[in-house]
Amino acid sequence: MAKAKKESDSAVLDAACAPEWTEILKQMIFIRRFEEATEREFRKGKIGGYLHVYIGQEAVASGIVGALQKGDAVFCGYRDHAQALSLGSDPNRVMAELFGKGTGVSKGKGGSMHLFDVEHGLYGGYGIVGGHLTLAAGAAYAKRYQGSDSVVVCYFGDGAMNIGSFHEAMNMAGLWGHQGMCPIVFVIENNGYAMGTSVERHSALTDLAARVRAYDIAGEKVDGQDIFAVRGVADRVVRQVRETGKPYCIEAVTYRFSGHGAADILQPYRTKEEVEQHRHRDPINILRKRLGEVCGLTDDDVKAMDEWAIERAANAVKFAEESSQPAPDELFADVVAEHGPRPVSEDERE
Amino acid sequence: MEWCAPPARLWGMGGAPEARTTPSRENEMSEKSYRDAIRDAMMEEMDRDANVLIMGEDIGVYEGTFRITAGMLKKYGPKRVLDTPIAEAGMVGTAVGMAMLGLRPIVEMMTMNFAIVAADQILNHAAKVRYFSGGQVDVPMVVRGPQGAGVQLSAQHSQSFESFYAHFPGIHVVAPATPADAKGLLKTAIRGNDPVIFLESAALYGMKGEVPDDPNFTVPFGQSRVAREGKDVTIVSFSRMLQLSLAVAAKLASDEGIECEVIDLRTLRPLDMDPVYASVTKTHRAVVVQEQWKPFGVAAEIAANITETVFDELDAPVARVTGEDVPMPYARNLELLATPHEPEIERAVRKVLYKT
Fold first, then answer.
1. ipTM surpassing 0.85
2. Paired sense of beta strands A248-253 and A218-223, if any
3. Which tens digits make up the pLDDT trace of B109-135?
4. Which listed residue (B157, B261, B301, B344) is catalytic?
5. Which one is the CATH code of A7-324: 3.40.50.970, 3.40.50.1950, 3.90.180.10, 3.20.20.110?
6. Is B148 an interface residue toward A (CB < 8 Å)?
């Protein structure tokens, strides 16, 4: 069912819009350098828990987020650094969150998997595969219920498509879409693997966009390495979803260059050759090459961007290192809004 | 379903020491069933706040398996009364997303037994999103529905879940024993900013009692209630077992002059133990009554709290009256053997009085 990619879908790059695209390139280089820094800090033991980086998939985050406007809401899985940075979260506070510091976007209580920045439209990274899809569908219903024309974007990996909450979310979104009550863009980040299990081994039907059709949700595939393609589809789809209140699904075919998580070193599920082959389609290089061809972006220009990105990432690490840990009182804050986690004592009553 | 019904006079709001929550005397009271009290609470809150909506399986066109939602679709329309597919994770998960965006969804579970299908949505999402977001979102939602045994629904449809949910921080767990509390506590649940698990006793739906008409009548969470005063033994309970405990207290008082003080916990999380400690300090003996299985249950938690806090006041070990440790059987005689009844409560009272 996936429509063949039409040339007209691709975002336009000409001299007039070159500054915007140069900015996007700069952002993508920064996300790459930021995540490389997180990998180093993880190895040094400065970042705990799990760390899942987006390296290789950046065009999917940047390309879709670029089509959004203020008031739109984004939900994603635990591979969420790129979404936060694309949405405009302060990199210092994102890094501080990974360091478990009180200055983190989630006050150091969420970590890498649970970046939240509601002010910038990020309603969370979630750690249970597929669980957040239902939340996102409900958020989309809420947007329409409140009379807003905002949309919700829900990112999830190919691995999320086999769990019950995926099917329940899709079906309810499809039903609510009939009433124009579910303005949501589902974005499948199809990086080919559910952790270490390839799409061929985890999905009976490997055409993932087609599976969504079962819930009366239209969808299409896009080359997730080519940000012009991603952004072109996103601009059209986000506009359409905003107008109709009907869900839509974009399957972004992409590849992660790093392991599943920072501890996935051996990667027995794929060969080095396979990874090398995909590195030839690095989304940053694709954008950089096009900018060179169309508007004469030079290697020196890119080098300057890269130096800026490396310095900014280093500054984020410095900020995180120098920040204080959460105050011990934070342990009990934010468990519930009212009553608190312990019995209410006599003095606390009116 | 009224097989366990205690005498009607016991179904009211109970004794004097509940001044904290009783509305002013000028307010009118009406006799309402537990079922109607729940519906009134939801409709009053939907009238009060356009952000309140209700969703669930067959709650609209069908008007609800237990008819709790009768008339609501007609009054509020399909945008606020949502018939959902049979998809508990979908219902609860979408409600969490709605709540994070500012709506106040009520999710009706056809029975709470089905809510465990949505355990990930309740426990991993609703209960935690405020915390791991560093307090950036409220999650004002209610998951409510009937639970408990008594009408031969066998193993998958007769369970009680209070200790299961009350184990987890990040949610409130409510189990009302009277129509007035059902209304007042549900209104508090809907007006609050946290996820609430609201456990109704299916066997109490037909029970009647005096309920305040005041649309601003609410019952706060975390305030246990002395449902009957006494000096000899403290009986701690909640939900349907509270009614059985009151029946036993009445019988022992009139037949033998044994005065039991009966405490209704009302909310298991937050749990208000102060009235229990005060009572045990007076009676020096305690019995805890619950319908669910004994291991790791509410009664164990209450008993542990009593021994930790007022151990020196005790003249006897705390006794627990619970369901038997088996999946619920279908056969009527076996089901009766599996669930606690008045004679077991009476035996426990005698036991802590050393009158066996």
1. yes
2. parallel
3. 999 999 999 999 999 999 999 999 999
4. B157
5. 3.40.50.970
6. no
